[in-house]
Amino acid sequence: GRVTDDKDVRLISAFLHRYFNEELLDDEYKLSPLEAYYAPKEGSLEEVREYIRGLPMDEDPQVYGLHSNTQITAQAQAARQFLDTVISVQPRMSSGGGGKKPEDLVTDM
Questions:
Q1: What is the mean pLDDT of residues 79-87?
Q2: Ramachandran region of residue 65, left (φ > 0), alpha (ψ -120 to 50) or beta?
Q3: Which side of the chain, N or C, has fewer Cβ within a 10 Å radius?
Q4: Measuring CA to CA, which residue among 33, 7, 4, 3 is closest to residue 18?
Q5: Which helix (DSSP H) or strand (DSSP E) does residue 52 occupy?
Q6: d(CA 66, CA 18)
Q7: Is the whole-model pTM more than 0.85?
């Protein structure tokens, strides 16, 4: 889609400037403060694929210029959302007995 918010335009421009510039052609250029993230040297497609396979599976927030605590916040939110979902499918205590079964609640999600 189109980016219309001025703050979003500034953010996207900053990211683009960081990752798409002439310094990227320098073999010493780092894409982030972390050692693993750099532009690989010119080589074959297989060498580039090997470099990509060697990257960490879980990105550190510093890769995107964020503080390390960002990951803690994101994990806490994911855990909270998961627990809210688990609680929402628990059977409810009621005297009417007309509530949905947990399987039906899951199906509705």
A1: 92
A2: left
A3: N
A4: 33
A5: helix 45-53
A6: 14
A7: no
